[in-house]
Amino acid sequence: DYTKTINEIYKKYGAMYEIDKSWDGFKWLNVDDTGRSSIAFLRTGTTDGTGKYLICVSNFTPNTYENFQIGVPMEGKVKEILSSDDIRFGGTGLLNSGIIKSRPEGFLDMGHSVRFTLPGMSTLYFSYTPSKPKAKKK
């Protein structure tokens, strides 16, 4: 069931495959978190709308981390679209429901960040939608 679901996400989200031959399609968001044995990265696609940006976060420890923080390149929102911790995949069912808005709280080399619950021994996928720039008043 997990393989079927990840394949559906692969087909739906261009960020999973569109820019595979250069670093333009990949950016580390968290690669040095040795204390919590976690990583996070951003995938970028070329399509507009759904599927242009995906965030993948993995936790390689059995510990669950509340308020786990990662940086994002700009103001926006994330939505969990897949968790290996889902009950249907044999996990505990600890999911992040709803939209999570970024905060103007810098993290590592990013100007904004998001916080969420990262279950133990899990990988989460989030869709990431940057906010549209606000029009300047005349």
Present the secondary structure layout:
Layout lengths: L1 H11 L13 E8 L4 E7 L8 E7 L5 E8 L3 E8 L15 E3 L10 E7 L3 E9 L8
Jot down its keywords.
8% helix, 41% strand, mainly beta, 8 strands, 138 residues, single chain, two-stranded antiparallel sheet
What is the helix tally?
A: 1
Q: Which residues form runs of ≥5 with pLDDT under 50?
A: none
Overall radius of gyration? 15 Å
Average pLDDT reading? 92
Percentage of β-strand residues: 35-45%
Name the helix and strand elements from N-terminus to C-terminus, one letter apiece. HEEEEEEEE
Instruction: Name the helicity range.
Output: under 10%
CA-to-CA gap between the ends?
53 Å
Specify the biggest β-sheet: 6 strands, antiparallel
Shape: globular
Query: Structural class, from secondary structure content?
Result: mainly beta
